[in-house]
Amino acid sequence: MNEYMKFAAQAALQECLKLGRREKLLVVCDPPCSAIGQALWEVGRDRCKEAFLVQISPRKDNGNEPPEPVGEWFQQVDVAIMPTSKSLSHTKARRKASEKGVRIATLPGVTEDMFLRTMKTDWNALGAYTRKIAAQLSATEKVQIKTDAGTDIMFEIRGRQISVDDGRLNYKGAFGNLPAGEAYCAPVEGTAEGRIVFDGSFPMVGLLDEPLILEVRKGRVVSVSGHPAGKELETLFLRYKSPSRTIAEFGVGTLDTAMISGRILEDEKVRGTVHIAIGDNASMGGSVSVPIHLDGIIRQPSVWLDYALWMKDGALV
For residue 292, how many other CB atoms are within 10 A of its CB? Predict the structure, then answer.
């Protein structure tokens, strides 16, 4: 383990998760992320009572459950961190562990380059900026997003909790991504209407060389066009039925050291972008539980909160 990787692993376990000397740590990784998993375990074993490293086979889709024994192990430690190629964030196993009070960070799709770059941020400044965004969203009932690329969608977020993902995972039951850097919520089911044009990235293809266009009615995707990945997305809709079409998340990126790389974990954190997810929203206060959660990135958005312009071409007004 080189010094750069050690620094990034220390930032994750010390700055963000506040791993204690008397605590137990579980690191879950898969082969594409094994180097990061190994680094986290090596740093963690020197800081806590017990550290466990488990390598699993990559899941087929984001949101698929981990192997059953591993899901049970989540609940038997104080801290769990999961650098995996597919997301374990929106799984029943993760939610059960959070309910038990386990502090959890997931790193779906993380690469070594991304890990080293994004963990260098000023965590105090990131927290202040992200909480500012969240406070403004908390006072909002309706959101509208437009872009020059063709996005024009409106939905309601009234009564929904705005989650702050700023890397501060030091309290019981804390959960978030690393790298961190977003304020997000689940739009009210059935309220989204309009068109989404993803022009940044999307999980099954990475960087989008042409837009992926979704038509939305009554909170669900009714048609997909544009990018060839649309066919694969429609296949997932058929596999997981109508609830998988749900507009599940609206998020605002706040991390200044992130860049659009084709990896959703980083892309959704890029300051000046917003993202919308399809599928499961039970992890963020919604009522839809399905085994997929797919975030798409929208570049240079203009956003209105309760009909007042709030963000213009990706910059706060």
Answer: 24
Average pLDDT over all residues of the chain: 95
Contact 239, 260 (CB under 8 A): no
pLDDT in tens, 230-246: 999 999 999 999 999 99
Q: What is the pLDDT of residues 19-34, one digit of tens each?
A: 999 999 999 999 999 9
Q: Cβ(115)–Cβ(105) under 8 Å?
A: no
CA distance 20 to 260: 34
Rounded Cα distance between 14 and 100, Å, is 21
CA–CA gap between residue 80 and residue 44 (Å, rounded): 11
Whole-prediction pTM: 0.85
pLDDT of residue 63: 87
d(C-alpha 294, C-alpha 236), whole Å: 11
pLDDT at 170: 94
For residue 1, pLDDT over 90 is answered with no
Helical (H) or strand (E) element with 315? strand 315-316
DSSP string, 171-190: STT-EEESS--EEEEPPPTT
The residues, ordered by sequence, that sit 6+ positions from 119 with a Cβ below 8 Å of its Cβ are 7, 8, 11, 12, 178, 179
Gap between the Cα atoms of 170 and 308, Å rounded: 35
Q: In terms of Cα–Cα distance, which of 282, 277, 278 is closest to 267?
A: 277
| Domains defined for the chain, CATH in brackets | 3-118 (3.40.1830.10), 123-316 (no CATH)
Rounded Cα gap, residues 155 and 90, in angstroms: 22
